[in-house]
Amino acid sequence: MKKKRKILLLEPNYSNKYPPIGLMKLATYHRVIGDDVRFFKGDMKDFVIETIYEKCLAKLTQIHQKVNWKLYEKEIKLYIKTKKNSVLDDLLNEKEDQPIIKQWLEHYSNYYKKKEYAKLENREWDRIFVTSLFTFYWKKTIETIEFAKLLIKEEKNLMVGGVMASLLTDEIEQETGIKPFKGILDKPGVLDDNDLIIDDLPLDYSILDEIEYVYPTGSAYFTFMTKGCTRKCAFCSVPILEPTYKQKVETIDKFNEIKNLYGEQQHLLLMDNNVLASPKFPEIIQEIKDMGFKKGATFIEPNQYEIAIQKLKESYNDKAFVNKTFKLLNEFVNKRLKRNKKVAQEFYDILDNYQLLSKATIEKENILRSYDVIAPLYEKYRDKSPKQRFVDFNQGTDARYVTEELMKLMSEIPIRPLRIAFDYVGMEKQYVNAVRLAAKYGVKELSNYLLYNFKDKPEDLYRRMEINIELAEELKLHIFSFPMKYIPLFGEDAKHREYVGKHWNKKYIRAIQSILNVTKGIVADGRNFFERAFGKNIEEFKELLYMPETYIVYRSVFEEAGLTQIWRNEFRAIKSSHLWEETKEILNKSEFKNLNEKTSNSDIVTFLNHYTISRSDIQKKDIEVENIRKQFNQLIKKDRFVELTLTYDFE
């Protein structure tokens, strides 16, 4: 009989909006072939402490079974991490067998402090997979790989994949000694001697309940209808990640499998990079309809408690489904039954009776024993209201492929929002045509990324935003724009977020980010807000790019204090003088410390002092900023699709 291997899936501790699809497929693969799988996202030191705590818990329970050591999880972990005597005293207080308990607590703290877990004989993971995302998460990703090297039995079984791994393959190998996997796992026998194609497997949604991190996608199917792209845009990684365009990917079977395994999901998030390029687009739309996503489609949440119970009976990822059950039951009593105090108290008493109120006491056995009592109440009072379903081509559609026929087809599914790429101003004609067709066929909510800092000029960005304002006004549409700063795909500049394009400078970029700071990167439709934020015309916009960041963000405060107008008068005077070139050189670098070291001209220093004024120098509240922030925070909170579109600059 084949020995079970221990498989660890790691996502680095960065903020991201979509779950790691590659790791979800790998989880399915290893479970299918009988391995044990664990997923972690977060600080790797916390992961090590978690695994040491589990060993310590087992030992303490063996020594002293009368004590529920889970109730002391926080203290045990703290002692393992710090070895503080005050924590130890609390743990030993009035307990039998104190010497032996103390001995083992000290043993496990030393095990952590002396990195005993990294000794070859103590390593327990047979295979570790580290995923990667944006290249500018270089530092966090490398740190995760290096830590994983301390946990793997054999380094050859540490595998790194994902976006950054495919783009900076040689750099990762040079830095870590680990050769990453490039591309996707779309061939049989890549990892083991079998016929399974990992990329074709359904996603293991259960691993998402193993961790504390919550992805904002909510209830959704994640899938592809096509793979790759027909374009070769210089700013895009898709030609490297998915070099072969596949006009149609078999999806319906995987869709049905997910539905059977984890229940119906509300939305459909399609990860296609250029779905409109497919000549099989009519078939794709029909398949989306067959999945239950016709225009006006609604969704009733399945009984997630029953699904969790079934998985626990099958012993399918107990860790995840114990966590999920705990969350479901506590949300049910605290939120769903909030207005029905009598039933809420009854349900609370049941949870208390079966020790299901605390993570320290909840166990698989308790959950299953309480099923007959809880199930009828949960089914009776759970939310069964129909909710709208939406389809989101979340990587965007290509305006250059949009025709009346294709837009008519898209209008037959509940698409929201329709994302149309507007990468450069030269696409204006095709982009405007696509938006007009969307309006014609009743698609009223649109969204797009506006790439900047590439080969464009600042005025190109302004014009694209302005076009969206004009179209929204004319066609009565909602168009959300998300300016997204270009970062190179390769080389040292890919490893951070500091790259400055040919027609840009640091001051311009900081100004754009300051303008968007208040709205978390969203440019909403509405001329008044747009003109207030970006200027009434390109001339005003260009002047605003040179305004001090604090004056930009806290516009009302500094205007009322008179400082903005003083700056504006001085800026215009210096710009028309012989001092401009020297001043501009300093401004463009956006570094305003030690001004006397940057110039010997006192007039320039006096002007640049505006850039050293901080928000704390003005005590008055900026009500305008507070109101706008509140408005956009509410928008993000209530609209998952807006939240999913926020760029990395505003995580």
Automatic annotation (TrEMBL):
Cofactor(s) the protein needs: [4Fe-4S] cluster
Entry keywords, A to Z: Iron, Iron-sulfur, Metal-binding, S-adenosyl-L-methionine
Keyword Amino-acid biosynthesis: no
Highest taxon, organism lineage: Bacteria
Name the UniProt record assigns to this protein: Radical SAM superfamily enzyme YgiQ, UPF0313 family
